[in-house]
């Protein structure tokens, strides 16, 4: 009797094991036949808080067309030099969490020389590269290789309170002396507290301001053809003296020597200054519905010395791909989208940024408010 019970138990276990094996085989077959949905790839990118806010539409537009990729934007400090420091620290420590690198034009040589960026030279079709403005594209090259796609250009402008000038019968200034005189006239009339605000803090923003003023006096930093350094020439001394004069004569606030871009923008937008030296990004912010100066200001090219012409330091931002990313193909798709005509048009219309593509440039410069840039 015991032998019969054991035999039945053996057959029961056998049927159980056979059934389990059939179930497993069936699951394997079905798994090969059914395409299970894959989770999207997440790519991280560090930007300033302002760029993160203004870039929401670009992220949404990209993800709508690429549901397999999600862009995780990390909000950093306002100052571009602080963003650069965070990127640099993450790469130096190794294991950087960033797949995409949003770069100011001046960072490119440092990042490329350190080996932190993927070489994109053979990844972009020649026909596509030909549509970019040459200077903006060259800003993404290092030793003849391409490491960054330009997504927006930049040229500093002079913002001015058009309503105040018209009320006082003052023409928009053309020379440095005109700017000082107009500022003092408005200050003496009690129209404004400050005349001219700019970026005087010891960071790359001050360098850009100085380059504009230096070129307006006919000077140069380094002659690209001869490599002659021009910082000890009379024109450079005049440029420094002009900036000092704005503070000494009370045209600029004493604290302007510690201003960054947002410091100047907030003061101008609050109605506390008649003139502002800044990048185009400040236009849509100052002209927003909740801005106290909406519709009351205009822009023009920077002032210059008599008999000379205006000049502007070429700025601009672009996207590179971190060499350490685990998803280089997906990251390249993001960079190409941000540099596309569609994305640049959206960025121009929403945020006032200057595009880097030929067709977009013509469209932007022939529409207000940027007609002033056409000579």
Detailed description of the structure:
The protein has 375 residues and is of the alpha/beta class. 45% of the residues lie in helices and 15% in strands. It has helices at 2-33, 49-54, 56-65, 80-93, 108-113, 126-129, 134-138, 162-168, 176-188, 204-216, 234-248, 261-269, 282-286, 328-338, 341-351, 358-365; strands at residues 41-48, 69-76, 100-104, 141-142, 145-146, 149-155, 157-160, 194-197, 273-278, 298-300, 314-321. The strands form 3 sheets. Strands 2-1-3-11-6 form a 5-stranded mixed beta sheet. Strand 4 (141-142) and strand 5 (145-146) form a beta hairpin. Residues 1-5 and 26-31 have low confidence and may be disordered.
What can be said about this structure in brief?
The protein is α/β, with parallel strands linked by helices and 375 residues long. It has helices at 2-33, 49-54, 56-65, 80-93, 108-113, 126-129, 134-138, 162-168, 176-188, 204-216, 234-248, 261-269, 282-286, 328-338, 341-351, 358-365; strands at residues 41-48, 69-76, 100-104, 141-142, 145-146, 149-155, 157-160, 194-197, 273-278, 298-300, 314-321. Mean pLDDT is 89; it is low at 1-5 and 26-31.
SSE layout and pairing:
Layout: H1 2-33, E1 41-48, H2 49-54, H3 56-65, E2 69-76, H4 80-93, E3 100-104, H5 108-113, H6 126-129, H7 134-138, E4 141-142, E5 145-146, E6 149-155, E7 157-160, H8 162-168, H9 176-188, E8 194-197, H10 204-216, H11 234-248, H12 261-269, E9 273-278, H13 282-286, E10 298-300, E11 314-321, H14 328-338, H15 341-351, H16 358-365
Parallel strand pairs: 1-2, 1-3, 8-9
Antiparallel strand pairs: 3-11, 4-5, 6-11, 7-9, 7-10
Helix pairs in contact: 10-11
